[in-house]
Amino acid sequence: MNNSSGMWSSRLIFVLAAAGSAVGLGNIWRFPYVTGENGGGVFVIAYLLCIAVIGLPIMIAEIVLGRAGRSSPISSMQILARRSYANSGWQLIGWMGVIAGFMILSFYSVIAGWALAYLIKMMQGLFVEIDSVAAESLFENFIGSPQRLIFWHTAFMSLTIIITARGVGRGLEKAVKFLMPGLFFLLVLLVFWAAATSGHFLEGLDFMFSPKPEDFSGDSVFLAMGQAFFTLSLGMGAIMAYGAYLPQSSGIASSALTIGVLDTIVALLSGMIIFPIVFANQLEPSAGPGLMFVSLPLAFGNMLGGQIFGSLFFLLVTFAAITSAISISEPAIAWLSEKRRLSRAASAYLIGFLAWILGLGSALSFNIMNEFTLLPDKTFFDSMDFLSNNILLPFGGILISLFVGWRLDKEILSSQLSEVPSWLLKSLVFSLRFVAPGGIFLVIAMTFVS
Ligand code: TRP
User: Fold this and answer.
1) pLDDT, tens digit, for every residue of 344-401?
2) Which of 114, 295, 416, 434 is the most exposed place for a label (fewest CB within 10 A)?
3) pLDDT value of position 171
C-alpha cells in the first residue's frame, strides 16, 4: 500500500482506501440481516447513535495513533506508550487487534466466498425469473455443501493474499477509485428499482426507520454497537495501520467524517434495497446470514437486464470484500514484515493460511458442523462473529479511547489534529475520556445485567 515514499499519494486516496476498508460485507450483507433479526427501527437508531457518538471519535483516535506511530499497530502502540511515559502494557491494543483480525478474516472469507460463488451463478443466468421458494432452496443447497463452501472460501482467501503479498500499493488505490463510485451507482440504481417495482418500498422503510418499542431490548443496542465497530473497521487497528501511511498535512477529523458518512450511506441504501424485496416476496426479515443471498437474486432475476446488473453487483461486492479483507489482515502483516523478520509476501501467506484454517470451522458450521456449538447456542461461525465483533472490537475501542483521551502525550495529540479548532479538540478529548468508553461500558453492562 505504500508507494516508494511509504505514503498514500493524497488525502483522497487515504479516504478511499479507508472507505474501501469500511465498506464491505458489513454494509451489504451484515447490516440488513442483523437489522432484520433485531426488529428494525430501534436497532437502526441505536446503530446510527453508536456510529456518531462512539465510532467517529474512535476512528479519529485510531488515525491519530497510526500517523503518530507510523508503524504497525503493535509497534505504534509501543512507541507512543514510551513517548507518552505510559505503561508498555498499552501495546495490548495491538495484540488484541491481531487476534480479532484473525477471527474476522476467517469468517469474512467464507461469506465473501458466497458472494464470489453468486457472481458465477449470476453470470450463468441461474436466477432468471426465479421465485422465492427456488431462491431459498438454491441457497440452502449451496451452504449445505461443505465442498463448495470450502472451495469458495479458498478462492477468496487466495485472491486476497495474492494482492496483499504484492504490497497492495497502486493496485488498491486504483481498485478503490473505480470500485467505490461503481458500487454506489449500482446501489442507487437498485434502490430505484426496489422503489418502483417491489410495491413494498414504504413497508421496507417503515421497518427500518420506525422504532417499535416492543422490539427494544438491551441486546439490540449491544448488537448495534458491535455492528458499528464492524462496519467502520474499528477497534482492532485496521484504520490505525492505514493511518500510518497518511501524509502529515492531511486533515484527520474531516477524513474520518467522510469515511463514516460514506459507510453509513452504503449500509442504509443496502437496507432500502433488501427490505422491500423481502416484504414483497413474503420472506422473513429475520432469516439470518442468507438474507442478501436470497433477496438479491430474486430482484435481479426478475429485472430487465438483471443478469448483467446482477453479475456486476456481485462483482462489486466481491471487490468491496477484498478491499476490506486486505485491511483486516494489514495489522498482522505489517507487524510481521516491518522488522524484516519475514518478507511482506511470506507474512501475507502465513497470515492468510492461518486464517484460512480457522475459516474451515465457519464453513463447516453451515452444514456438517451445524449442531456443534462453541459458545452456548452459537455455532462456530456465530461464535467467531460474536467474540470478535461484540467483544474484542468494543473492548479494543475502550482501550483506544482511554489511551488517546488520558495517556497520549498532549503535544502529540494536538500536533496530529492541528487543523481542528480548539473547541472541537476539547470535545473530542472529552468524548474519548468519558463518552465513548463510558457508552461502550454501559452498553456491555446493560446486556449482561439484564
Ligand atoms: N468494515 C468492513 C465491512 O463492513 C469489514 C472490516 C474491514 C473490518 N476491516 C475491519 C471489521 C477491521 C472490523 C475490523 O465489511
Assistant:
1) 899 999 999 999 999 999 999 999 999 999 999 999 999 999 999 999 999 999 999 9
2) 434
3) 64
**Is pLDDT above 70 for 6?**
no
pLDDT for 117 beyond 60: yes
What are the boundaries of each domain within the chain?
11-449
Model pLDDT, residue 156? 98
Nearest CA among 75, 97, 101 for reference residue 236: 97
Q: What is the DSSP letter of 74?
A: H
**CB count, 10 Å around CB of 182?**
16
Read out DSSP for 234-248?
A: -SSSHHHHHHTTS-T
Q: How far is the CA of 29 from the centre of ligand 1 (A)?
A: 12
CA geometry: angle at 96 spanning 430 and 163, to 5°?
Answer: 110
Distance 169 CA to ligand 1 centre (A): 19
Residue 169: CB atoms within 10 Å: 15
Residue 306: burial class (beta carbons within 10 Å; 0-12, 13-18, 19+): buried
Whether residue 310 contacts residue 297, with contact meaning beta carbons closer than 8 Å, is answered with yes
Give the single-character DSSP code of 31: H
Average pLDDT over residues 299-308: 89
Ligand 1 binding residues, C-beta < 6 A: 21-22, 24-27, 104, 230-231, 233, 236, 238, 324, 327-328
Query: Which option is the CATH number for 11-449: 2.120.10, 1.25.40, 3.30.70, 1.20.1740?
Result: 1.20.1740
Q: What is the pLDDT of residue 3?
A: 42
List Cβ neighbours of 162 (8 Å cut-off, separation of 6 or more).
Answer: none
* CA 241 / ligand 1 centre spacing (Å): 13
Place of cell 510481521: 336
